[in-house]
User: What shape does this take?
Amino acid sequence: MPLSSNRKIAHTSPEVEPMVAAAGIWKKKRDDLRAKRNALFETYTKDPQNFHLAREIKSIDDEIADCTQHVEQERRAEQRAASPAAKLITTPK
Assistant: This one.
């Protein structure tokens, strides 16, 4: 996007969300999946021969792992974004 002619700032569109919000969305989805998984697992413990439940739990476990991976990627991206800023700050001697 172009810079303002009178100020040296970049314009951003209003639909841009900060990374923290994205990580929060993945965490919320992961928490919802965990609640669903725990409820299914409770039922499965009462009927361990129900392979349909076992497959569904496995599928949810995979989704939880995917969400966890996204949360970690967002966290690492946040750290990388913050790292150069910290290096630019100089302390007087």
